[in-house]
Amino acid sequence: MAEWILVIIGFLIVGILGRIGYKFWQYGRPQHLKKDEVARTADDSAVTLFIPGYAGNRFSFGGMLQRFVTSGIANKSLVVMIDRHNHPHVTGHLDPYRPMVQLVFATPRVAVRKQAAGVLAVVQYLMAHEHVQTMNLVAHSMGGVVLFQYLTTAAKLVNLPEVRKVVTIGAPFNDSEVGQNTYPIENHPLTASGPTKTTPVYNYFLRTLQRLPNTITYLNIAGNIGDDAQSDGAVALNSALSLRFLLRPVIDQYQEFVVHGKNARHSRLHENYEVDRQIVQFLYSDQSKVVAGEK
């Protein structure tokens, strides 16, 4: 009897490892819509880059991108591995209709500025080799800080693709540590004029976000699991939503959405169907399609 139990446990372990291995392979490759679609609007033709958070990998946005493809919403056109020298290694081809690009950092535990330089290298590659002219940016956690670091750097350069829409998910805009999780969770209350206490990253963006063009629209998504800190378990709502004060000059182009409940946990935000729905409607104003698996 004990031998049979061991055999069953062995099969279960092999099955679980096999599934993880398959997902690892699947999430790291391009996936295209079964039916070719024609880009009819600027939303359809813009290239959307997905930037993971600190220590992120192909699992970070792999599930979300797969759901978008399975649902017939967009193409996962390219997977770009950014090596430790910030050289992009590109797999796939760029679709004309709603192309999505998954970024994966070979060394995912590095400083914000270095990752932002990697994003810039990818954008320059897309501009030079794919003639990309317009794009959107979607980022989770520290990736949101990386995203805005890229934007402030790009604002000083010329002839880069126009950024149309920006989505941040659970990003720590007023944390002292924007990468690794720290406890207790940093939670500085918001007043009518801004946070009661500001951190270096917040103060940096307060100075530099004035450079951004006023043509970008923003969606800021945050999670609240209902804990004492009113957070997603890693980033406080007050930190994520402090972005509204950084974007005050263009506040009419800014919107925010708060996800509640156990699936609002920081590491689960990119697996949350409410988040999927908000992103799809924001990027594509697409009310006709339902994300795969959504109840």
What's a quick, concise take on this entry?
The protein is of the alpha/beta class and 295 residues long. It has 9 helices and 10 strands.
Structure description:
- The chain is of the alpha/beta class and 295 residues long.
- The chain has one domain: Rossmann fold, CATH 3.40.50.1820.
- It is 35% helix and 20% strand.
- The protein has nine helices and ten strands.
- The strands form two sheets. The protein has an eight-stranded mixed sheet with strand order 3-2-4-1-5-6-9-10, sandwiched between helices.
- Strand 5 (134-140), helix 5 and strand 6 (162-169) form a beta-alpha-beta unit.
- The longest helix has 26 residues, at 2-27.
- It is globular and about 50 Å long.
How many domains is the backbone divided into?
1
- Which regions have little confidence, pLDDT < 50, spanning 5+ residues? none
Shape by Cα distribution: globular
CATH homologous superfamily grouping: Alpha/Beta hydrolase fold, catalytic domain
Could you report the average pLDDT, rounded to the nearest whole number? 91
How many strands in all?
10
Query: Beta fraction of the residues?
Result: 15-25%
Question: How are the strands of the largest sheet arranged?
Answer: 3-2-4-1-5-6-9-10
How is this fold's topology laid out?
Blueprint: H1 2-27, H2 42-45, E1 47-51, H3 58-70, E2 75-82, E3 88-92, E4 99-105, H4 112-129, E5 134-140, H5 142-154, E6 162-169, E7 190-191, E8 194-195, H6 200-208, E9 217-224, H7 237-240, H8 243-246, E10 254-260, H9 273-284
Parallel strand pairs: 1-4, 1-5, 2-4, 5-6, 6-9, 9-10
Antiparallel strand pairs: 2-3, 7-8
Helix pairs in contact: 1-3, 4-5
